[in-house]
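Worked example 2:
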Amino acid sequence: MWEILFWVYIVNAVFLINHEVDSAYWKEWNLIGLPGGITLFLLIHFPLFFLIIYGAVLIDRGAPSGLIYSLVVGLVGIIAFSLHTYLIKKGRDEFKTPMSQFILKSTLIISVAQLGMTIYLLIF
C-alpha cells in the first residue's frame, strides 16, 4: 500500500502545486491579506514546495514520518478546497474558472483518498 500512497501523494502534490500557480495568477496574497505581494508569496513557497517533495521521498522510503507529511498534505488539500469554496460563496470571483474548479475539486477527491490510505497505514 505504501507504493500506492506514494503515487497518490505525488498526484496530490502536483495538483496542489498547480493550485499555487493558479493562486499566483489570482494574486491570492491580496485575497488573504498577505503583505509583501508576489515577493513574499514566492518566498513562502520555496520551503513549502521543498517540504511537499521531501514528504514524497519519505513515503517512497517507507519512513513512518512520511505518513505525517501525507496527513498534512491531505489536510491542506481539503482546507484549500473548503477555503476557496467559502470565498466563492461569499461573492469572490477568483478561482471560478473551469480549470481552477477542476484543480480544486480534483484536489479534494485526491486528498480524501490520500487521507484514507494514510490513516489505514497509521492504524495497521
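The chain has one domain: 2-123. The longest helix spans residues 64-89.
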